[in-house]
Every structure is written in structure tokens, then in C-alpha cells.
Amino acid sequence: MKNKALAVLFLTIFLDLMGFGLIIPILPTYAKTLGATDAMVGLLGTSFSIMQFMFASFWGGLSDRYGRRPIMLISIAIMIVAYVLFANATVLWLLFATRMLKGFGAANLSVAQAYISDVVPKENRTKAFGIIGAAFGLGFIFGPSIGGVLNEYYGVQGVGYFAAALGVVNLLSAYFFLGETLQVKSDKAILFPNPFKDIIRFRSIYEVNALFTINFVYILGFSMMQITSTLLWAEHFGLSEMHIGYTFAYIGLLAVIIQGGLIGQFNKWFGERNLLVFGTILVAVGLFTMPFAPTDRFYFELLSLTLLSFGNALLTPTVSTLLTTLAPEDAQGKILGTNQSVGSLARVVGPAIGGLVYGWHYTYPYVLSGSITLIVSVLAIRLRRKMY
User: Fold this and answer.
1) CA atoms of 78 and 99, how far apart (whole Å)
2) pLDDT digits (tens, 9 = 90+) for 188-207
């Protein structure tokens, strides 16, 4: 049951992130063709994340009460509708609406993590979360690169409908092959929680508070990079949307290599607490150096992206693993959903700030995000000492 569930979850997350990745290399530049400013491009990223922030904990609690499977199926169905609308978004307000709808239904990752907590022993969860992270990265290998090519030949409609078709395949796969893993359903799960209340509730545990803070800051930095990097690479390095897609694919490839094969070994060698420290430092250095690569030597930019991706690939499964070891058995979905809300809050703030300060100077998002991530690495060091 465990191996079958992990295999289906891998496919589910892969197809979901592939669809998501299709949009990434074209979204900022397409928004600009519809009249968006740099700041509005940032708000476009925020519109997705604010809905995910408001509803991620809700979906997590719902999965604790009614089971993982129905929530996963509902989430995928909402994604399909959002992609069809995206294919027909010829005005800016409709583009915003599609991103908000997709954010509302973005429950896949937290529910997949709850699936893992149901079937995998605590000591093996880092490796299992790494496998899901590899699916995440694999989707980013194929999604952006295919999205750039599809946009080149078929335009935004081709990208949107292809993403919707992937969603249909995903829905059928999950419907026929993904079983229910929740053994004991919790009647205490609150279905319409205040996400801020959930964050405050878990903050009473020092270690959870520290992990939420680390998660918030590194995702804040990563989201500032993600929304502005397309503009940076197009405007300052002269990359086409196709080549921007290939660059994002490189980020995904690194995630697959690390989370799919190396994270388990790294965990044995160093332990989760040390990986937490390494990850925050690598993310900080990668972000800070990105805008300073010579425009005629893009391989220096790829070096910065390597550090950033390596750190991100270490942090994502490590934070999830540490949180599940601290949460009660009947609150696994809740704490992971709340952690996703924390990440979504960072993605609300990050793109808005990133788009705004990019309009002031293209280096500002990276200097700012790199600096605050380096500061929070001190918290990771303190947490490492406290948890020994």
C-alpha cells in the first residue's frame, strides 16, 4: 500500500507541477502584453498566493475530517477549470481571476504530504518527502521548457489547453489508482479556520515557530526571484521565453537529482537539523549573487541558480519532516496545511515586494531577499542547537 500510494502521489504531483510550470516562463511577459506594469506583475503572483494562503489550512483540515482522496480529486478538478480559463484570458482582469481560482484549489501538496504522514514511519519521511519533491522538480523540468515551446508555436491558448489536458490525465489517474490512507478521521478538525489563528496556535511550540519562520523567509526570497527572474533574464540577459523555460527546467533538474536521489543520503550523513542550516545559507548566497552575473556570461547566473536550487531542495523536505515529528498524529494534515499557509503568505508578500522593487532597480529583489535569508540562517543554527 505504501509503495503504491507513493507512486501515485509522485505522478499526481508531477502532472500538477508540470501544468503549473507550463505557465511560469510566459506569465510575466504575457501580463505585460495585456498592459501590466512591473508592480502589477508582482500582484499577479500575489493573487494566486493569497487564495492559497486563505484556503490551504482549510483543505488540510478537510482532509483530516473526510479523508485525503476526495480533497485531492476536488483540487485537481478546480485546476482543470482554471487552466481552461487561462487559455481564454485575453484581458488582464480575467488573467487575475484564473490565478485566484488556481490558488483556491491548490491543495495537492499539503494533502500529498498528509498522505505520506499516514503511511510512512517518521524515520523515513525525509526520504519520502524527497521523492515528492523530486516529482515537484521533474514537473519543473518538463513544464517550463514545454511551455516555452508551446507558446512559441501555439500561443497562450495552446499552453492553457495543454495544461488542462494534463489535469484531466491527473484526475483520472488519482480517481482510479489513489486509495484512501487516513485510518482515523478527526471530527475535531475545523473546516473553516482562520489561517492566522492556526499559525498563532502552533507558534506556541518554539521549534514549530522557528520552522514556520524559516519556511516563510526562504519561500519569500524564492518567490521574489521567481516572479522577477523572467523579466531579469529577458530584459538584461536577452533570453527568449523558450530559453527562459529551459532555465527553469535546469532548476527542476537539480531538484530531481537532490530530492529524488541524494536527500536520503544527505540526511543520514548530516541529519535534518544540519541540512536546515546548509539550506538557508545556500539559498541566501544564490539569491544575492543572481543579478550580478555578467550579461555575456550566463553560466555565472547558472552557478547562482545551482546554489539556490540546491538549498531549496534541502529545505523543502527537511522542514516538512521536522514538522511532522513535532505534530500530534491527529493533526498531521493540519500542521502541514498550516505550513503551506505560511508558505502561501510568503508568496503573497514576496511577488508584490519583488515586482515593486524590481521597478526601482533590477538588483533590489535579490539583494533584499538574499540578505533576509542570510539573517534567518542564524535562527536555523539556534534551532539546530536546541533540538540536539
Assistant:
1) 11
2) 656 666 666 666 666 666 77
